[in-house]
Design a protein that fits this description.
Bound molecules: 2-acetamido-2-deoxy-beta-D-glucopyranose
Number of domains: 1
Cofactor: Ca(2+)
Number of helices: 1
Structural class: mainly beta
Helix content: under 10%
Catalytic activity: Eliminative cleavage of (1->4)-alpha-D-galacturonan to give oligosaccharides with 4-deoxy-alpha-D-galact-4-enuronosyl groups at their non-reducing ends
CATH superfamily: Single-stranded right-handed beta-helix, Pectin lyase-like
Distance between the termini: 18 Å
Strand content: over 45%
CATH topology: Pectate Lyase C-like
Number of strands: 16
Order of helices and strands: HEEEEEEEEEEEEEEEE
Enzyme class: lyase
CATH class: Mainly Beta
Family: Belongs to the polysaccharide lyase 3 family.
Low-confidence stretches: 1-33
Shape: globular
Radius of gyration: 17 Å
Mean pLDDT: 88
Subcellular location: Secreted
Length: 257
């Protein structure tokens, strides 16, 4: 059973044979594992410390591009209620299809961070203290890009992929976390999902990616570009379901290529 599931999953640990092996000191090399956009940006764990906070009374709805100029945004004191699952209205930013959110800091007083209703871009978006989750991806197809920025203190997930298509996470800092990325384990509608992960600085976490092998998910992880300490696993596989049950874990920190 495990062997046949392993065949279904293509967990590619790309070591970029064709190109010189890049390191974090030289992060600007295009690697075969990467998909566009190729943004020249090194991962950094220097979180901005904005002097100003803007407390929003409702989620900011974004079409096109919103540049926050590194102001801190939140939803006011008491907004985070732990792992209580919220909806779009509980987000700080609600991104419509094709929207870009850049240079913002999201503070502790919020519940749902960023929700993307279609393919979106997050460039240099920093989460000072993740509540339920940081980024929820609901696109039905296409690719969302999370490039630059970082997240701290995610009891559970940073990126929750509930929709379909691809999520790219590149040049990202994650500290004290459960999972950097999770393909939804028990959503009502399940899809084959794809994640591309590169140039991550990760500290104190349980895993970078959790994918459902029974739905043919793939995680392509540029292992040579990772800088990890106290992270238990690069990728875990699960048997997902569509009835809301807790999914079963199948493998931990095991690559099949
Ligand atoms: C957000 O903006 C889009 C585009 O203008 C609109 O269709 C949608 O209803 C808005 N959503 C909310 C929650 O305001
Ligand atoms: C996964 O792949 C198998 C074998 O190719 C196929 O039968 C199945 O429909 C796929 N499932 C999804 C969710 O893509
Ligand atoms: C996870 O696997 C990687 C190699 O793919 C290895 O370097 C690392 O030590 C493993 N982590 C643990 C906690 O076993």
């Amino acid at each position: 059973m495990f062997a046949s599931l392993a065949v279904l999953v293509t967990l590619v640990a790309t070591l970029a044979q064709a190109n010189p092996t890049p390191t974090l000191k030289d992060p600007y090399v295009r690697r075969d594992a990467e998909a566009p956009p190729f943004v020249k940006r090194a991962a950094s764990c220097t979180f901005p410390s904005p002097p100003k906070t803007s407390s929003l009374s409702k989620a900011m709805n974004i079409t096109g591009t919103f540049d926050g100029g590194n102001v801190r945004f939140d939803r006011g004191s008491g907004a985070c209620e732990g792992q209580k699952e919220g909806g779009d209205a509980d987000a700080v930013f609600l991104l419509q299809s094709g929207a870009t959110l850049q240079n913002v800091v999201i503070g502790a007083n919020q519940a749902e961070g960023v929700h993307c209703l279609g393919p979106c871009n997050l460039y240099n978006v920093w989460f000072e203290d993740v509540c339920e989750d940081a980024i929820t991806i609901k696109q039905t197809s296409g690719q969302s890009n999370i490039i630059g920025g970082g997240a701290k203190n995610a009891d559970d997930k940073v990126v929750q992929h509930n929709g379909a298509g691809t999520v790219k996470i590149d040049s990202y800092c994650v500290q004290t976390f459960g999972k950097l990325y999770r393909s939804c384990g028990n959503c009502k509608t399940q899809y084959k999902r794809t994640v591309l992960i590169s140039q991550i600085i990760g500290k104190s976490g349980s895993s970078l990616a959790g994918i459902n092998s029974n739905y043919n998910d793939t995680a392509t992880i540029d292992k040579a570009s990772l800088s990890l300490s106290s992270v238990s696993s690069i990728c875990d596989t699960y048997k997902g379901n569509s009835n809301g049950d807790e999914p079963t874990k199948l493998t931990s920190n095991t690559s099949n290529s």
